[in-house]
Specification:
alpha+beta, 4-stranded antiparallel beta sheet, 2 domains, globular, C8orf32 fold
Length: 290
């Protein structure tokens, strides 16, 4: 099995503490995939298994950056590594949305405004709701059916951007409810996208369509296939999943002295393992768990 739950070490956050715990003890090896995402690789034994990841991550107190005058980059000036994010992929058939994309957005300014127009349209025209799409739903399906979850909002936005020759990559991670009213549903992983403008990648989120605070990026890729939470080679049934990401306030701040010594680590080091003994859930007050 492959698994992606670890906060990406080189993203716009700083990892202060992290640990991994499995039951039974599994031989987990981490490697970087073709997009630089930290992937775990291991063999599941017969019977039930538990994989837990905990982290404390320092993030900016500012919301997602908005640079209204950031220009689109002509294709001939794009860096080589950005070109793959202009092409169709398994779940993002941007080549089949060319006419629609240019009809809807071709008249917008060749700046940040064009990507924002894509977000505005997707946010206004796609109904959000659990059970409205499935694992095999593609961007074209969402464009036709006009319904889905955050994964579908992100993939359709990416497809429309790519059809407009704007490099865009599917991104997912943890998103705590900071400065917003929490929804009345269990927390889950969240998907958004990044677009290449003015010489760098910027965050966009058609699902919420407002700048948010506290994103903790796990991975990015061409589409949801590249950054699936888990990929099983054989029969494996997910029995339950718990995800939570909460803000540590100044009143609830945690010092390094309160962290489990066996799992404490510098942000540049490998993930520390707990071999068999369940970690004390009270030792770390705010964690992201998958």
């Amino acid at each position: 099995m492959l698994m992606l739950v670890r906060a990406r070490p080189d993203a716009d956050h700083e990892i202060r503490y992290e640990s991994r715990w499995t039951e039974p003890v599994l031989d987990v090896r981490e490697y970087g995939d073709g997009f630089g995402n930290p992937c775990w690789r291991f063999v599941l034994p017969s019977g039930p298994s538990v994989v837990r990841y905990d982290a404390i991550v320092e993030v900016s107190g500012a919301a997602d950056l908005v640079v209204a005058d950031a220009p689109l980059v002509p294709v001939q000036q794009l860096p080589d590594e950005a070109l793959v994010f202009t092409l169709p992929s398994r779940y993002i058939e941007s080549d089949l949305l060319l006419d629609d994309a240019w009809r809807l957005f071709g008249g917008t300014p060749p700046t940040w405004a064009r990507v924002q127009a894509v977000c505005d349209w997707v946010h206004a025209n796609v109904e959000y709701g659990y059970g409205l799409s499935g694992p095999s739903t593609t961007a074209l399906d969402v464009f036709k059916q006009r319904q889905g979850v955050c994964r579908d909002f992100a993939q359709l936005s990416v497809a429309l951007c790519r059809a407009l020759n704007i490099p865009a990559r599917y991104t997912f991670g943890y998103l705590p409810d900071i400065a917003v009213e929490p929804p009345d549903v269990p927390m889950d992983f969240h998907a958004w996208f990044e677009a290449y403008l003015g010489g760098r990648w910027y965050t966009f989120d058609a699902r919420h369509n407002v700048p948010r605070i506290g994103r903790v990026k796990i991975a990015h890729g061409r589409d949801a296939v590249d950054v699936a939470l888990s990929t099983a080679y054989g029969g494996a049934t997910l029995q339950s999943m718990v995800v939570w990401a909460d803000e540590i306030t100044e009143q609830g701040a945690i010092s390094q002295d309160t962290l489990p010594v066996s799992a404490g680590m510098p942000s540049s080091g490998p993930v520390a393992d707990h071999d068999g003994e369940s970690p004390d859930p009270g030792a770390v007050a705010a964690q992201a768990r998958g």
